[in-house]
Specification:
- The protein has 506 residues and is of the alpha/beta class.
- It has two domains: 336 residues, 3-Layer(aba) Sandwich (Rossmann fold); 147 residues, no CATH class.
- Helices cover 42% and strands 13% of the residues.
- Helix 4 packs antiparallel against helix 5, helix 5 packs across helix 8 and helix 6 packs antiparallel against helix 8.
- The C terminus is likely disordered.
- Strands 2-1-12-11-10-3-9-8-4-7-5-6 form a twelve-stranded mixed beta sheet.
- Bound molecules: adenosine-5'-diphosphate and magnesium ion.
- Magnesium ion binds next to helix 2.
- Pfam families: HerA_C.
- This is DUF853 domain-containing protein.
- It comes from Haoranjiania flava.
Length: 506
């Protein structure tokens, strides 16, 4: 194929009406073609994407480059950093011989740059703590995460309703466990009178699954203060989108907790973001590195939920980019919804590998310039096959691309550098406080203690209206101090009973 027709095809394919950013240059017959720039149109970046390739081929650096591009263009970013190798975004890169050579081929100047980063954490790791309450999960999502069947999910729905009706806030897993125990013991008669028979065996199963979640240290995630997702959408004073890096290096052996968190966050983002018309660029882009972890232990119900959210969330201007070794790690229904594909080199060791490569090649647009299947195993580091959606939603021509290098540091930040960033963070100051408000656990414990010691006044005998647990003076005073939480909770409960789910809404 001639270089002229290659240049023409790429120029036609990668010229866009709205803003676009160069990510690399095309390669033909083993040589870069400087005239064949490869551009990323910001407008279609809510159509999601995939960055795939074998270990060491450049996936994480590609994420880094894309995050820089979004931040530069006032698009905030959230990065799920499973291996802890994205912190370098917070410091400027350094020019070396290799990078100088690459940028010469790219026909671009290399300008080192540090990006405004915010470190987030689900556990005791450094950064702003992300937490959510059990009631914010709502019965449906919680049941999905626990992998419950319909009967068990029905019980969870009843328990949520009972807690709503009796103003028992479900904040953390301790609350949820307490109410489950209460339902199968002291509260059984009461609750069954209201809602019908509840199987103790089913409650036992639910309890077991909650404990399983707890064993993955989910306790650290359920609680208060809850993270407001709009805090992910901040723009820096200099107009750059904030790069929120969620450090979850301790999550690799806890896939359940990871998918729990991801789903809740996506659900919350979906529920709290307004429907957007035709935006020129996304409002937020989420990168999920090592995305196979999200799917590896997910139940069918959970997968379906992820699929639905991914389908719907793009109309809210939110793009999701998955990074994983093999495209086949992503369930077909989700893979089919990813508009941008950056495929780094794959390895062909086994028969299964070769089959995967064939499938990957077949999923790319047809090309007259390359033997896609062969090329898929032959590309160098920081090179990839690229195809994305143009502004009409049509795939751009497949192009073998030499990609830019990050302008921020390719290596990680030191512990001290991370500490310095966290200590300056307004978000960390806002969220890294501990709230211990009165919730179902304390309220039920007290109720049971009172029953045991006989301190509860028999209201009927006293001729007063039936008292609720909330009339207890101790609880009343505690409630006064927890008004904000409870007001929010009650508002949410009302929304919940209107069928609006367990979400915080503005
Ligand atoms: N775009 C790039 N420009 C320059 N060097 C790169 C680029 N991509 C990858 N590299 C080099 O390859 C190494 C591995 O890349 P990485 O992104 O960590 O791979 P992966 O995430 O696929 O395992 C990097 O540390 C860097 O030295
Ligand atoms: Mg990586």
């Amino acid at each position: 194929m001639s270089a002229e027709s290659f240049i023409k095809t790429m120029n036609d394919g990668y010229t866009f009406k709205a803003e676009s950013v160069k990510i690399g240059v095309g390669i033909l017959n083993g040589a870069t073609v400087p005239e064949a720039g490869v551009y990323l149109p910001l407008k279609t970046m809510n159509r999601h994407g995939l960055i795939a390739g074998a270990t060491g081929t450049g996936k994480t650096k590609t994420l880094q480059v894309l995050a820089e591009i979004f931040s530069d263009n006032s698009v905030p970013v959230m990065m799920i950093d499973i291996k802890g190798d994205l912190s370098g975004l917070g410091a400027p890169g350094a020019l070396n011989e290799k990078i100088a050579e690459r940028y010469k081929l790219l026909n671009l100047d290399y300008i080192p740059e540090a990006y405004p980063v915010e470190f987030l954490s689900l556990s005791a790791e450094k950064g702003t703590r992300l937490r959510a309450t059990v009631s914010e999960f709502g019965p449906i999502l919680l049941s999905k995460i626990l992998g419950l069947n319909d009967t068990q999910a029905g019980i969870v729905a009843i328990i949520f309703k009972y807690c709503d009706d009796n103003k028992l806030p479900l904040i953390d897993l301790k609350d949820f466990i307490k109410i489950l125990q209460y339902t199968s013991n002291e509260g059984k008669k009461d609750i069954e009178q209201l809602y019908g028979k509840i199987s103790t065996t089913s409650i036992g199963t639910i309890l077991r699954k909650v404990v399983e979640l707890q064993q993955q240290h989910a306790d650290q995630f359920f609680g208060e203060p809850t993270f407001e997702v709009e805090d992910l959408m901040r723009i820096n004073a200099d107009g750059r989108g904030m790069v929120n890096i969620l450090r979850v290096t301790d999550m690799q052996d806890r896939p359940k907790l990871f998918s729990t968190f991801m789903l809740q966050m996506l659900d919350e983002l979906y529920a709290s973001s307004p429907e957007e018309g035709d935006l020129d660029k996304p409002k937020l882009v989420i990168f999920i590195d090592e995305a196979h972890l999200l799917f590896s232990e997910a139940s069918d119900a959970l997968l379906q939920k992820i699929e639905t959210i991914i389908k719907l969330i793009r109309s809210k201007g939110i793009g999701i980019f998955f990074s994983t070794q093999n495209p086949q790690d992503i369930p077909a229904n989700i893979l089919g919804q990813l508009g941008m594909k950056i495929q780094h080199s794959l390895r062909a060791f086994t028969a299964a590998d070769r089959k995967n490569i064939k499938t990957a090649a077949e999923n790319f647009p047809l090309t007259e310039f390359y033997k896609t299947e062969d090329l898929l195993t032959q590309m160098g580091i920081g090179e990839a096959m690229v195809s994305l959606l143009n502004e009409k939603g049509i795939p751009t021509p497949l192009v073998y691309t030499l990609l830019c290098s990050p302008r921020s540091r390719m290596d990680v930040l030191s512990g001290n550098e991370i500490d310095a960033i966290v200590s300056q963070s307004k978000l960390a100051a806002k969220y890294n406080v501990s709230l211990d408000s009165l919730s179902a656990y304390e309220m039920l414990t007290q109720k049971l203690e009172q029953a045991a010691t006989g301190t509860v006044i028999d209201n009927k005998q006293a001729g007063k209206k039936e008292k609720t647990i909330l009339d207890n003076p101790l609880i009343k005073s505690a409630m006064r101090t927890a008004t904000t939480t409870l007001t929010g909770y009650i508002a949410r409960s009302i929304l919940g009973s209107l069928g609006l789910g367990g979400h915080r809404r503005r």
